[in-house]
Design goal:
Number of helices: 9
Radius of gyration: 17 Å
CATH class of the largest domain: Alpha Beta
CATH topology of the largest domain: Rossmann fold
Shape: globular
CATH superfamily of the largest domain: P-loop containing nucleotide triphosphate hydrolases
Helix content: 25-40%
Strand content: 25-35%
Order of helices and strands: EEEHEEHEHHHEHEHEEHH
Length: 241
């Protein structure tokens, strides 16, 4: 199986602050992995480096075997990287359909009918069709999360980066979202998912990577990772839900 994503020796610093240090792992095509770790571990920064919105201070990012370390976020999106953000960022004055259409038009680079079809397909997959004509600013939290997912799907990703998409949801809402993400995994999309709600992750992913203070401290099957002494130590005092 070929690797959809390869992270080699990634480091990220802001002036003297070191956020990531020598992070290395690979994600085979079609695999779903979870990234866990305490607040401040560097998880979201890692997603930003993968998506190209942040430039790595050192190391290499490869997408489907191609070195994209110096490639910008817009081009990486065209190459198949889709991302959601921890705090949903819809265009609040646009409708849900128009938000998805922006992803298909500017993210995937599609024109007119093709963009409209892709936007509708993304809304269907994300179970947002009933909100298609609703201004995004009027959506409840679960629907805003699902719109964030739909906008990412409208960019036609082969690799989907999810940043705490289950955060703040009720158990029933979380279960509903997990079902949708499981279907995306089964469709062959490669998923890299940051999440504090570990039971949501373990319902979808076959592997966990744990970061602590910007360093990778564990990588393996979820049960082994979450029971490892190193991971238990960084979570001491709470954090696992």
């Amino acid at each position: 199986m070929s690797n959809a994503l390869e992270i080699k020796g990634i480091a990220k610093s802001y002036a003297s602050l070191r956020v990531l240090e020598e992070v290395t792992f690979t994600v085979p095509a079609g695999q779903a992995i979870g990234i866990v770790g305490p607040n401040g571990a560097g998880k979201s920064t890692l997603l930003s480096v993968i998506s190209g919105t942040e430039k790595a201070s050192a190391g290499t990012v490869l997408i489907n075997g191609r070195d994209v370390t110096s490639v910008g976020s817009e081009d990486r999106t065209r190459m198949g990287i889709g991302r959601t953000f921890q705090i949903p960022r819809p265009f609040t004055n646009l409708t849900v359909f128009e938000n998805a259409l922006s992803g298909a038009t500017f993210g995937a680079g599609l024109k007119r009918k093709a963009a409209e079809d892709k936007a509708l397909e993304a809304l269907e997959i994300a179970e947002m069709m009933q909100y298609a004509n609703t201004p995004a600013g009027q959506l409840p939290l679960l629907a805003r999360k699902r719109l964030e997912l739909a906008r990412a799907l409208a960019t036609n990703p082969s690799i989907l980066l999810l940043d705490e998409i289950a955060g703040g949801l009720t158990e029933a809402e979380c279960d509903s979202l997990v079902q949708t993400i499981s279907q995306l995994r089964d469709s062959g999309i490669t998923i890299v998912w940051i999440e504090h709600v570990v039971q949501a992750l373990t319902a979808v992913v076959s592997r966990l990577v744990c970061l602590a203070s910007g360093t990778l401290i564990a990588d393996g099957d979820p049960k082994t990772v979450m029971q490892s002494p190193e991971v238990l130590e960084v979570y001491l005092g709470g954090g696992i839900k």
